[in-house]
Recover the amino acids of this structure.
């Protein structure tokens, strides 16, 4: 296949660790410091085994966080000729490189072709691995073992509040990888509409929601609303009923203990409390959490189905990557004053982090 002949696995070596961070983000509730010290990220052997498992599952999306550019004038001209019609064979090599670069850009989703660099094409490790699998499944699986040869540590370039710039390529159209935490799923629902970017988000299928929290908008925190304190009693009674049912469930004691302890602490916190609108948000979230726990531990419902009851405002973590041009497109649109407060804040953080690296948006 063309991609596997133009690029080699070594071309992606500097950015392969970002794929491991993206993948571990999907399956972990830990913060960035935790992930950077996770052996499946920090150890090249463990990382290779972990990525091999993902490769076996054909979990290609995480490999989009690794990216590389190639100037096709540096490629053997005979190789270029193999992918050109006979009428183009007598063209100068540079013109052939332009045609092949444009061809890849037109046929590979989320590759990067820019007429300003007409002989250059950018592709992700995902493109490389998908083509390698079609070419030779044995070589495809061997590629993950070879990833252990590359020991490039992840050194974040900067952090502002929720957002960390964990990787940056500045050649040609560049490439940036961000780790964003302590944001709501409401915000990430807006974020993933920017389909030119790549995402790896904390999974509610595989990560327990027992200790998660609700992101509450500043407008709710600031609002003074007169509410009857009796509302608290209704919530507390429901939660206590659910707790009693969970206590009788046939489930591992250590799992039930954590859930019941959380419920007890929550009930204690809200005893004799003067009710605010923020409290109603929190109470509703915890009621949904109680139904989630009831479904999992009593109903034996899989977490992937029980999560349907959870609010969109639940905290999440996401890795975002893309070429600088598409990152700039996102920042321009979401720093607009009409953008919602949470995504606008993240976009401004990304803008400032790039500015610190000499990249103006």
């Amino acid at each position: 296949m063309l991609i596997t002949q133009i690029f080699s696995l070594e071309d992606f070596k500097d950015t392969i660790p970002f794929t491991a961070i993206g993948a571990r983000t999907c399956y972990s509730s830990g913060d960035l410091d935790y992930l950077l010290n996770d052996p499946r990220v920090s150890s090249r052997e463990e990382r290779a085994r972990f990525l091999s498992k993902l490769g076996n599952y054909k979990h290609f999306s995480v490999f989009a966080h690794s990216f590389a550019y190639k100037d096709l004038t540096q490629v053997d001209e005979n190789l270029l000729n193999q992918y050109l019609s006979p009428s183009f064979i007598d063209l100068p090599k540079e013109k052939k490189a332009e045609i092949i670069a444009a061809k890849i850009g037109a046929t590979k989703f989320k590759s990067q072709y820019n007429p300003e660099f007409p002989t250059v094409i950018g592709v992700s490790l995902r493109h490389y691995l998908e083509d390698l699998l079609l070419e030779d499944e044995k070589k495809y699986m061997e590629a993950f073992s070879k990833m252990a040869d590359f020991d490039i540590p992840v050194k974040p370039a900067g952090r502002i509040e929720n957002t960390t710039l964990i990787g940056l390529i500045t050649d040609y159209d560049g490439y940036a990888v961000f780790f964003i935490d302590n944001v709501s799923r409401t915000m990430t629902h807006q974020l993933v509409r920017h389909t030119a970017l790549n995402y790896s988000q904390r999974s509610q299928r595989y990560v327990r929601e027992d200790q998660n929290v609700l992101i509450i908008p500043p407008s709710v925190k600031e609002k003074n609303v007169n509410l009857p304190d009796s509302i608290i009693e209704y919530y507390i009674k429901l939660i206590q009923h659910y707790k009693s049912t969970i206590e009788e469930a046939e489930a591992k004691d250590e799992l039930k203990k954590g859930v019941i302890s959380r419920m007890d602490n929550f009930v204690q916190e809200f005893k004799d409390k003067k009710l605010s609108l923020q409290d109603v948000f929190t109470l509703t979230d915890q009621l949904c959490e109680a139904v989630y726990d009831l479904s999992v531990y009593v109903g034996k419902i899989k977490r992937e189905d029980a999560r349907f009851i959870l609010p969109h405002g639940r905290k999440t973590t996401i890795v975002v990557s893309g070429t600088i041009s598409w990152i700039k497109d996102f920042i321009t649109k979401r720093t607009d004053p009409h953008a919602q407060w949470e995504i606008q804040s993240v976009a401004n953080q990304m803008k400032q982090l790039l500015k610190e690296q000499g990249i103006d948006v």
Observations:
- The first helix runs from residue 2 to 6.
